[in-house]
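Hi there,

I know you've been waiting on this one. I reran it after we fixed the sequence typo, so this is the corrected version. Both the input and the resulting structure follow.
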Amino acid sequence: MSFRWVFTQPEDGDAVEHLERALFSNNGSATASKLSNEAAQTISRLLTLRGISTFDSARHFFRPDLSALHDPFLMRDMEEASCRLAKAVRDNEKVVVYGDYDVDGTTATAIVYGFLKRFGVDVSHYIPHRFKEGYGISEDGIQYAIDSKADLIVSVDCGITAVEEAKFAREKGIDLVICDHHTAGDVIPDAIAVLDPKRPDCDYPFDGLSGAGVGFKLVQATLTKLGLPQDVAFEYLDLVAISIASDIVPIVDENRILMRAGLKLLNENPRIGIKALMNLIKMDIGKISTSNIVFSIGPRINAAGRMGDAGTAMRLLIAESYEEATKHATELEAINQRRRRTDSQTMEQAMAQIGDKVDIDLCSSVVLHHPEWHLGVIGIVASRLVDQFCRPAVMLSTVDGKIKGSARSVKGFNIYSALKECEDLLVQFGGHEFAAGLTMEEGKLDEFRKRFNKIVEDRMCDEDFKPELSIDAEIDLHSIDQPFWRILSQFEPFGPRNSKPIFVCRNARVIGQPMKVGRDHLKLRVAQNGSATYDAIGFNLGSHHDDVRKCSGGGLDLAFTVDENTWRNRTNLQLQILDLRVS
């Protein structure tokens, strides 16, 4: 697939030059002194594009430290929440931690559960069944706490819209503390405390925390009320890091600090459950990155909830012996394999429907329905269809006589607003700009498909149907050397608002013969104007092999990221090609 190359520009045209002077003029560091002028300018540009414009902000970016975390008591209701939880610890009350069934929800539940259990609190956890109960706090869940004779419910990663449920809990005489990070509704639930940095009346300095991040802040504040050191809270940073990477929250501000420290803990001393899972899937402890979480650890933890019951994931995260953890990791891997088979089968069926019923060149959207598709995987498949066809996609199944499903969007098209325009055809819907869920009566599907497609057609132009690649900087290959890499690698961890930098070089020359390797990958060596020669790999770019073979004299433009690659105990810099153009 070919991309539109869009070069990102700093808001302030002079900021790059000012930052370069601040960072690299008379700088005594050995690495900085070896940078070429172009490399120094490129590093300054990358920082400026990330909102970093001063020496101090750059220092904090490259050296994120736990001492720079915000005071948890800046969050509205934190005083009430931490006092109530501290009382539960001191008085050994019975507490139910009420979570969500995804990665963020299960890790958040494990953090608060583990913290309370550590201090001998009579604590249990409750995570609703995805299909039997659905998302969020329910009266059934509150009744479970009542039947358990609990004094307090602490919800994590859910609850900000649970107005009626909070009223029900109060009527039943059970205290409720809500920890959430989702957008608040018009009415805040009437609970003992409602922690949510996105509350309109909350002045907390950073509203991008994950659900587990909010739970972590509650643990921090409760430790303060108990007169105990913050080091206890830091023991849960491996779970916080997994939640941040998996929930796709911005890797800036506090999240960058928490993510960096959490990755360090994952690589040095992960908890028993995570260690058992990594050993099972043969993942080397000490080399865990954000990508490993996003593509390997997170999906496995998520699999249990996607298939219905997140209990196996929870039991893994709170396991107290390696034998117990290995048992749950094995169970979770089996669930994940079932999820992957269901996922692949659904994708195949979706592609078959497109081939039979959809002229992709004439349709601005993809709306597919099969009565037996699994609700736990159709969101994943919708995302893949968006990636493949660069169109909003809606995947629908039938449950209890109603059509339910997931919608995913492309950059620049607000899918929640589109569903709002179809509100009269829907029983219910909810979500945000890029992802949403919806329910409709069976007889409304054809009309919904037509109207939704018309909305997309009216709002998107031809260029919007071609995927965009945001380029950070154009660079000569001469600048890519070890001093440059040592600074570039410190931009990690990567994620939203701190993506891995993408570069473009012009008129590269192919050295030797390019090769097609693997399933359809392109492997080659390139140089530019007498630079060193670099290994390069382009995944799923094998179709360009013949054109690239003709570029031995130059004329090859590359969009790429820079990585290290280790082969036979030798480590070298490697270009990962995302797109290419032959002049």
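Quick highlight: The chain has a mean pLDDT of 93.

Best,
R. S.
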